[in-house]
Amino acid sequence: MTALLAAVGLVALVSVSLSIAAHERDRRPMPRPRRPVWAREWPVSAARADERSLELLRSVINDDEWEMYRDLGFLCVTGRRLRPDGSEGLPRYRYLIYPHRPLVALLPRSLAPVLEYCVEFRDSATSRDGREAFLPVGDDLIAKWMTVRSDEGRMLAHANVASAGCQIPLGQIEDDVRRFARWREARRVTDATDGSTAHGMVGHLGRDAHRVDGVAG
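^ that's the sequence the OP posted. Answer follows.
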């Protein structure tokens, strides 16, 4: 009888031990999935991040746009406007695209500045002290370039809008427009002198240019 009771007690003790072990195992945190190599890279400096982003920008935009940014420090591109049926309509504006600043809308033919569209892209992954950091320069330019070139109408419908000169001084905008016009003319003269084909810059409207300023508003 004593042996039987001892056996029953031993079984109960083993059962309790197994139950406790299983409970402890369930409480252990699940192992984290192994991150890919690129996600385990050491963070780079802000300067290096900007350098990498500009390399990416150069691979995305065309040669003329890259040379424009290299020479002037901004891009001037024409919006791409889609109709409800998906076909492409006349663009409403051209845009000066600056890194970390609003988009400046220009009338396509006269290049007169009319509005500023506040479009910001922030990098929450690199936030410091509760404040979100700006994207690297090239990444910010790519994001704005893609926004303008993919569907101008959608951007116009959702972005915060203000008069030109609200955040960027109007004098600076007008000066940059004149710099762009001189830059574009110098390239056309060079092309004519060399006898080469004119550069196919994004923003050139060809024979439709005379129609567009009347559409914008």
